[in-house]
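Need a sequence for this fold. Nothing fancy.
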């Protein structure tokens, strides 16, 4: 198997029950949703010990991402191979039928709040679907203090302290670690984040978990410990145009943990990069990645990991297509 030449990899989604979830992901992902309960998250690329993405195509079908990382580190990660023993990004689709808890993830400034083996978590969202009434909250309004925020938890007015965004498809929202955030009321987003699962709940809108018949636990003190009060670059992002031909390419996110571009076009263009891995996400329309003469079909909701070894590949759109391309800085 060591002689295997890597190729574009597709993974089986890992669906997660969440009390705030819905059934929208059925129309986005090809694998049927389990049961008939609320599914809030599809983990579409995950190198977590407890939730390993499994390769869904080609000779490596059935292999866990962690196994591929260990066995083909150089071929998969290229110039990044010595820096990462596990894949540093966790990618998800979220279907937030109801509001998620108001929550926060720690930054590297709070190592005491990050369990061994985990990391800080900066994340970002690209809105896929939204309805009237959908909501995103990202960051604190200026003037909010620890004491006014704490008081608002008691009287249920926390939303008054949060920067509110009415989302529409295509919106890009940046949530650096240390930002108070939540979203919900029928919004579907693509989420890119550091490979971390550390979340502190500040407030949960009086939700009762139908699986346990109880409210979910809060971690108010830990949450307060990691909130960054004061100015922040969280919230709605203005895309920065980089090229207009042969495709419109705009940069949505550019932080220490990930870079993300949106690519719109209908003429052939290049995806992937020499000596580093890239991830492609189908947002609208369809097309195919060409690699070694083999086409790899991309349509809405598809995620492909392009190994470093694949380098630059030609993308052939079938009509107009919108993709996201993600890199690790
Ligand atoms: Zn979050």
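Here you go.
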């Amino acid at each position: 198997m060591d002689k295997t030449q890597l190729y574009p990899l597709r993974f089986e989604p890992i669906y997660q029950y969440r009390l705030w979830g819905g059934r929208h992901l059925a129309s986005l992902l090809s694998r049927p949703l389990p049961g008939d309960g609320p599914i809030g998250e599809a983990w579409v690329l995950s190198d977590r010990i407890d939730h390993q993405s499994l390769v869904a195509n080609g000779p490596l079908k059935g292999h866990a991402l962690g196994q591929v990382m260990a066995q083909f580190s150089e071929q998969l990660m290229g110039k990044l191979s010595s820096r990462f023993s596990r894949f540093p990004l966790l990618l998800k689709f979220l279907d937030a039928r109801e509001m998620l808890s108001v929550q926060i993830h720690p930054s590297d400034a709070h190592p005491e709040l990050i369990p061994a083996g985990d990391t800080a978590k900066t994340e970002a969202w690209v809105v896929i679907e939204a309805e009237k009434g959908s909501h995103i909250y990202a960051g604190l309004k200026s003037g909010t203090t620890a004491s006014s925020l704490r008081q608002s938890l008691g009287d249920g007015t926390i939303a008054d302290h949060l920067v509110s965004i009415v989302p529409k498809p295509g919106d890009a929202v940046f949530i650096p670690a240390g930002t108070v955030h939540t979203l919900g009321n029928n919004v579907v987003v693509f989420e890119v984040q550091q490979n971390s699962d550390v979340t502190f709940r500040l407030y949960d809108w009086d939700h009762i978990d139908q699986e346990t018949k109880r409210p979910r636990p809060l971690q108010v003190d830990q949450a307060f410990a990691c909130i960054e009060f004061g100015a922040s670059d969280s919230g709605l992002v203005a895309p920065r145009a980089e090229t207009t031909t042969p495709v419109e390419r705009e940069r949505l996110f550019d932080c220490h943990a990930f870079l993300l571009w949106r690519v719109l076009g209908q003429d052939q263009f290049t995806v992937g990069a020499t000596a580093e891995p890239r991830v492609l996400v189908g947002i609208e329309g369809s097309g195919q990645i060409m690699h070694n003469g083999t086409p790899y079909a991309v349509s809405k909701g598809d995620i492909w990991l392009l190994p470093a070894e694949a380098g630059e590949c030609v993308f052939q759109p079938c009509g107009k297509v919108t993709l996201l391309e993600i890199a690790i800085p």
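For context: Helices lie at 65-71, 73-77, 146-155, 220-226.
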